[in-house]
Amino acid sequence: MSQNIINARVTFRNSPIHVLEQFTIKDIENAYEQFINHSDLDECVIIQTCNRIELFGKSHQYDLEKIKKTWASITGLEVEVFNENVEFEENQEAIHHLLKLTSGLDSMVIGEEQILGQIKNSITSARKTKASGQHLNTLFDKAIRIGTRIRNSSGIGKGGISVGSMAVKLAEENIDELKTKKVLLIGTGEVSTLVAKSLQRRGYAFDVTSRTIGRSITFCETMGGRPVKFEEVLTGFNNYDVLFVATTAPYFLVTHERLTKAMSNNKKGMMILDLSNPRTVDEKVATIGGVKLMNLDQIAEMVEKNMNARLNKVKSIENIINEEVSVLEASMKRLEAEPLVKDVFKNIESLREKELQKALQMLDEKDEKKIKIIEELTKAVVESIVSTPMNNIRKASEQGNPDIVELAGKLFDYKKQKKAD
């Protein structure tokens, strides 16, 4: 592929959220300008969610080091940090990854719908700033259509639910008028992210705490919620009606002693959902009057059936994606020939019109009907002569034969524009 499609990404798969957020691009418009001007990219699209920051680019000759340096200068990070966290793919692998994104196979929760809307917003934003052009616009439009079709035909997004959203659903079922209650989320990791997303989507206010207030603040900037100090929480459980606990602490954070003290000042009752592994809520708290405790095993069991149904569909979706990748890659390669084909047709059309006018003047033809017949004849002759070689040039481009396209360019004296898009 003479024009390369590249993907550089930092995602939840390799980086915890507090690391991931360091790569966040705050000024997207400025970032597009920087990448285009300093990274040898002709086009680019930035996808940014709470679980990923990704850059798709198109370039004849890209320089990964320049991309990392530009990204580092935008975020204020050291380039070395990128070597530890950034994944990189190109061409077929990059296209395959985009299709996995649009079909929901690369999400934290398989099949979730939100990413598709975020990708649509990303390409719309890139179009508005003119950061994307013919190649990436075509790639994203087709990938979104393919992803939508896969979702609809497979039903991958139906019937499933994450541990986080299941926990919130259980809280809704057990607590009357949850919107009027005080909710606390302990932890800022992967599961906490799912809980926060579900709470925010349903319009619930909630507090967030972690071992450091800085981590809580960073988490809340992306995920919503109000950061509170860890020390205040440990002595203030009585201020809350619902606790979502999702940490990796090697000890009990919510102890029997602390909850007994909290419940002496809490007459309304409390629901605790321990999503930690290992558990960080002492099981003895379930014996305290007014406390309802559910742990990760119980919640995961409820989720498992639905998730298994989704996982069973993954293999067939992967097969569809593998078929679509080659078709989409061929479409991208074909685009290489389009500026040349367009230029040839434009020049030939110009010559046809010029010669037609000369001939009509020599014939001194005034009859509109005859003029129309002659004009249609010239168009048909041109079409019959030019269409076959032009289609062969497109086919050569599709099949990855840039030498034939280059030779055709010389034959037709095509002067390549710096940015044909």
Brief characterization of the structure:
Helices cover 56% and strands 12% of the residues. It has helices at residues 17-20, 28-38, 64-75, 79-85, 92-103, 114-128, 134-154, 163-174, 190-201, 213-223, 230-234, 256-264, 296-334, 338-363, 368-398, 402-411; strands at 4-11, 43-49, 52-59, 87-90, 183-186, 207-209, 226-227, 242-245, 270-274, 291-295.
* Beta strand count: 10
| Mean residue pLDDT | 87
Overall geometric form: elongated
End-to-end C-alpha gap = 17 Å
Helix content: 55-70%
**Which fold name corresponds to the CATH topology of the largest domain?**
Beta Polymerase, domain 2
Helical stretch tally: 16
* Class computed from helices, strands and strand pairing: alpha/beta
CATH class of the largest domain: Alpha Beta
The strand line-up of the biggest sheet is 7-6-5-8-9-10
Description of the molecule:
By secondary structure, the chain is an alpha/beta fold. It folds into three domains: 4-159, Glutamyl-tRNA reductase, N-terminal domain (Beta Polymerase, domain 2, 2-Layer Sandwich); 163-300, Rossmann fold; 338-411, no CATH class. It is built from 16 helices and ten strands. It has a six-stranded parallel sheet with strand order 7-6-5-8-9-10. Helix 6 runs antiparallel to helix 7, helix 13 (296-334) packs across helix 15 and helix 14 packs antiparallel against helix 15.
